[in-house]
Design goal:
Aspartate Aminotransferase, domain 2, Aspartate Aminotransferase, domain 1, 14 strands, about 15% strand, binds pyridoxal-5'-phosphate, pyridoxal phosphate, DegT/DnrJ/EryC1/StrS aminotransferase family protein, aminotransferase, PyrdxlP-dep_Trfase_small, transferase
Amino acid sequence: MRNIPFGRPIIGDEERSAVLEVLSGTQFVHGPLAKKFETDFSGFIGGGYAHTVASCTAGLHLAYVYLGIGPGDEVIVPAQTHVATAHSVEYTGARPVFVDVDATTGNIDIDGIEAAISPRTKAISVVHYLGLPVDMDRVNVLARKHDLFVVEDAALALGARYKGVHAGLIGDVGSFSFYPVKHITTAEGGMFTTRHAEVAAKVARLKAFGYDKMVGERVVPGLYDVDLLGYNYRMNEIEAAIGVQQLKRVGGFLTKRAENDAALRKALEDIDEVKCLAAGGGDFEHAHYCLVAVLDDAVADKRYDIINGLRDLGVGTSVYYPGPVPHLKYYRDKYDLGRVQYPNAARISNHSIALSVGPHLDEEDMIYVGRMLKQVLGAIK
Ligand SMILES: *Cc1c(COP(=O)(O)O)cnc(C)c1O
């Protein structure tokens, strides 16, 4: 029997000694490693401005703080995503307005965006679902037409490109996650990106209390003024040290993910009871976070039996995500969304199994997962 965990961070001696080196010194924040990680990251994504932040969620929140939105304002949010996409709007007092997703990609339904825009709308947030880029030309056209800001939740989109442009630089701003099982990790952490210099300059201060002068720019140490209600959303040097090393591995990670994704799709090809979400390609360069197998109606109500069957055969799985965000209790109760239907998001949430294509796995593992899924499906019928 194979052991196939859904996610596992890949940490080597390089990361371990980089952390020890930070701990052997005295500079734990405001140091050179966060700067280096930012420079290397913008090099990898091909330009723009990058700022380390405490998490992807912190980066998304800063986008809305930058915009100055609050009660009475609205932001379009896809129904099928991590709750952070909506929470980051909710923190400001503005209202997330949920739009269903496309059944074949899991990405926000762009016709649905247009229908949801109101005079109160201030921004559109998109999620490159599990690493598959959204059709951003269409989103940007809508945004220009209605004078809206475009926020990319790029938590799972490191390596995703749309028409050759990396996620996080296609809309106005983006935010990446370095949570342990994402494409690369810093334990906790994120990267805020933007193609606008003025947004980058303000967010750099918003993530650090709103200081007018950063450490290093101060004429007298400790002397500064504060002209913004900033947060403490910085990344520390220990995390940044891990990030610098992880980023060196990202090319290899992405190649492995693409190979695993292709191998797993092939292994699932002749299983009639499952259909995979879109594979990307062409203008839509997929970052292959994981592969979502949507179960046929005939077996969908056996999902937990299938998940448990796979687990007993050593195959770890996950669910992306546990339900449409508007149907999670907080949003369901606050905005009375229980009866509003998001059929495509609900189908992906409730009828699918997420299978790993992570770089800790190889082609043999993918063939094994395909065989085990067949075996489990055969047994439950
Ligand atoms: C993981 C995830 C987040 C949250 O990232 P953190 O770094 O943990 O804040 C946000 N959005 C999506 C789509 C995610 O998958």
